[in-house]
Amino acid sequence: MDDPDEYDQEAVLLNSNADFARARALLEEAAAAGNDDAMQIIGEMYEFGEQGGVSNFGEALQWYLKAAAHGNPHAQFALGFMYSTGKGVPIDEGLAVLYFSFASNGGSLEANLALGFRFMHGHGVPKDCARAALSYELVAAAAVEDLEASGFATHPDNTRLNDEYEVAGAHGTDEDIAQYFQYTGDTNALVQAGTLHLHGGMGLDRDYDQALDYFRRAAEQGNPAAMSNLGFMYQNGYGVERDNATAVEYFRKAAEKGNLHAQTSLGVLYLQGWGVEQSYAEAYKLFKLAADKGYADAQMHLGQMFYYAWHVKKDYSKAFALFSVAASQGNIPAIFKLAQMQRLGHGGPANCLAAVSLFKRVAERGDWIDILADAHDLFDDGDQDSALLFYERAAIMGYEIGQSNAAWMYTRRMGTTLGTRVASGNFDEGEEADSSGLQLTRWIPSEKFLDMQAFRYYSLAAEQSNAEAYLKLGDCHYYGKGTEIDLNRAGESYTHAQLFHSAQAMFNLGYMHQYGKGKPKDLFLAKRYYDMALSSNPEAYLPVGLALIGLAGHFAYDYLRGEIDFPFSWSGGETSSTEPGLTDMVEWDTVVILVLTLALAVAVAIRQRALMR
């Protein structure tokens, strides 16, 4: 191949499902000519099963190693992922960190996310807040730069997979709503329709021409939001030629009508001198006008003026306060600036942990967050193998949603039977030959390995305060799934989960206190936890009611054995003890409900037998 960069054309062919064989041949030509990007793409083809429909981690590994040797950061990140998760190789955290470090030095934002999370929590490396902050700040800066350049914020796919998740109908009636916005004559609805076409959403792709049409129709009727959106499109050149002068005209009209977005955007143009003569004074006036009405973007820009001493005296305290207010509304640049101030100690004492947490929030909002939406789409399309790979990549990058969903899929054994590998360990092996005649070891994950992976991802999610993950961790420790049986650790995990009002965790703690498993035996505390479980989830009346009846029997049995005192507390009587007695151990209204339920079940069963005769 004369031009090694011709691999770009082949990548387009692959993505468009065009001539796959031709694209593959040209990619191999480019790779033979030394193009490391082509090597990396071929590696991806093997990893994600685009060659033969089955993941071949052994071949993927070889191609990634070739590309990595040429310094390709994407291949280096892929190798870090493989060594971190045991894809094609035994798990080796040392090599994973090494390849992530190589990739980070080469500019891989995904690798910096992975390293930031590891240094934050001490996975495979010593905890190092400063290094975590450095890694996350690099990615966060890129996310803010992309946001400011495009004007479009990214939104994470927060879909959680669980036993109640249903693919069909999971997305609601978004398209119906979009059609309503399109065909109603109301100016606000026209603006909504234009916004959907401008940003994409509710089943609609971005369509700048349609967005312009809706905004112009609404603007002609005097709608200030439409005018401001037209200003945004002219300012950024979406669907029209970039024209700051026209943007200023639209922003000014909308600003005069009190539109906060327009006032802030016009302030930015004055601040930069785009389409108008630069004027910090005018920018300050416009930002102050919108900020006083609570507009987050204006508060962020006003904070920057105090931070950098533009037109006003430098005042870190005022900047910090403005960034904090804007950040509380989810403003991404404000969160980033607040993180920098926390790291540097501007406006108050330096706080590395707070800085890392804020940097992480921003870093996870870049375009790379699309990996979650891609994983969700693959899962809905029935491609569980690829969905798991995508969720695991997101998990290694520190996304809690990716960690939780990967753990759930491993628990349910979904997407866990794919691929081939080159080394033994972690798997039950079976030999088979590929098209080239090479003997490859088939990936048949052992039950132990699958349990360990589920445990691992639940552990990562729990570190990020996921209540369900804490609950599942407790189950893993209690039953010895993916780890050794440890009732004390199980109790600790359930205790964490109940702090998030998990009714199941409360019930489990009641059981553990009742029988003294992993927690001190305490029937009164067991009763309290059972009551808390019922209060947290009233639908749990049946299991809680049965548990309370059993607890009352347990109380009486222990009393008869002389293990506890029995402070009777009959209604209307007196007792010298402050502890609950037998009558307090049982919620009698719950008992009545249980008896009636059982009676109804018996009656239905008798009726059905009579009908069958």
Task: Give an overview in words.
The protein is mainly alpha-helical and 613 residues long. It has 30 helices and five strands. The strands form two sheets. Strands 1-4-3 form a three-stranded antiparallel sheet, with helices on one face. Strand 3 (431-433) and strand 4 (439-442) form a beta hairpin. The longest helix has 25 residues, at 588-612. Mean pLDDT is 85; it is low at 9-14, 168-174, 419-440 and 568-578.
Quick overview:
This protein has 613 residues and is mostly helical. The protein has 30 helices and five strands. Strand 3 (431-433) and strand 4 (439-442) form a beta hairpin.
* Termini Cα gap: 82 Å
Determine Rg (CA atoms, Å): 30 Å
The strands making up the biggest β-sheet line up spatially as: 1-4-3
- Overall body shape: globular
Please estimate the helix content. 55-70%
Oligomerization state of this entry? single chain
Low-pLDDT parts are 9-14, 168-174, 419-440, 568-578
Q: What would you call the structural class? A: mainly alpha
Q: Major beta sheet, specifics?
A: 3 strands, antiparallel
Which strand-content bin applies to the residues? Answer: under 5%
Please give the number of β-strands: 5
The overall average pLDDT, rounded, is: 85
SS element count, helices: 30
